[in-house]
Here is the input.
Amino acid sequence: MKKAVVPSPKFHRLAVTVLALLVSGMALATDNPSNAVIAQYMRATKAGAGTPTPAPADPYPLMAAGWGTELGGGFMASRWAEDWSGMGTSGAVPPLKTILLGNRSSLTLSAEARFRYVAARNVRLQPSDDLAQGQLRAVLGADLRVNPNLRFYGELGSGQVNDDRDTATANFQNALSLQQLFVDVRGHAGGFLVGMMAGRQEFADGPRQLISLSDGPNLHRTWNGVRLYANGSRYRFSAFDFRATRLGRNGFDEEISQGERLRGVSASFIVTPGAGPNTYLDPFWIHSDNPFLRLGGVAGIDNRDTVGARLWGRRGKVGFDWTVARQSGNSINECRIEAWGLFAIQSLELSDSGWKPRLTSHVDMATGGGAYATGEIRDFNPLYASSNYLGEGQFLGLTNLLLVAPGISITPSAGTTLSLEYGYALRMDTSDAAFGAGMRPFPGTEHVAGRHIGNLSRVNIAWAPRASVAVNFSLEYLDPGRVLKSANLPSGSHAYLGTTYRY
Here is the structure.
């Protein structure tokens, strides 16, 4: 018989603290709009925030407000960002989805279940290392809104795999984890919605080449600390100071990693005049401390400052998302860091009717090279990049890379999207290795000549019959180029079929 999973004393103390905060916060001040923008926002809140969908009300455009990716129908990739409080009396929500507690208090329950079947050949280009695995994500969340100024959010998550359970990492195989538990206190000052989120939380405010939820694994990445935000009608600001959550494989055995830290500031400005399609400029500074970095066969502490800006938006039929970032600091053996990355995503709508074809492309450049002997490292660190950006197969990483990837996307029906992409990958510095995701060098590539790493082909199909249900299929194939062939590394493939249900 399995031993029962018992919450740790740390969890009990945390729960008691949250309960105390809940009781003390009941009497927080109510809304006090100070100008036309906030007044409009508050009128929407009073009329029913999130009506007729659970999309959160915000003075700044939601897609750029820093709350993460919108999934359609008001659903968000981070479920804490949704606001169902105005839908409790609409009759448009499932039973028990939003429970009215009197006055302006409400309790929202959420759940998410994702099942994927993954088949991979030569995982991470290791010959004969194949994978056939079912993967399950199960998440349960609760959002308690005491009033418009105070709320508490908690989330439990479990990840399961049906094969290789003993070797799967804790973000894939996990009995039960306290994924999130934070308090969000907000109010209004001048023309801004201002607030503070304190506790364990998901965070994805930044370019996805640097900051993401890590949606590929069964459990999302979470952080512990404080996030401050101030959102106005045409610009917003954010500051954060986090320490990483290190997951265990059993029940409630995650820990706060004091050494792995992420802090910084970010902002967003609407740089186009008037209403309509906007262009956003998002400057950022991120300081990262990673005591577990491995590079060139050596492990040590990596302390980096990443400074840059993202310019993105849509003008007519053209969409664009451009990011430039420079990294400095000190890495293993106190080597000086001098690295940079440039990521340019473009799309061109060929037709707004029929299958709505779009030409797509992205060009990614990230430096590599340097040597411990000279005291300088030029390897770009993608920090906590999206696992999906260059593919769940993890064949390529944003280090010592030049990738040119044209593609095409079509929409055969309202809920279906098919995209194809072909990427041509080179290494920037021929004296350095070729890298997979996570700054993982391919063995032997640092000793061979040539620039051509390989060609990465990707096919993605997404079908959403309704807002709460999504079906995805992905196929990736890396055809080795001169660099990989010279190091006797094989081709690799990765495919998955998955379905997600959100409640």
Notes: The longest helix spans residues 9-24. Residues 1-50 have pLDDT under 50 and may be disordered.
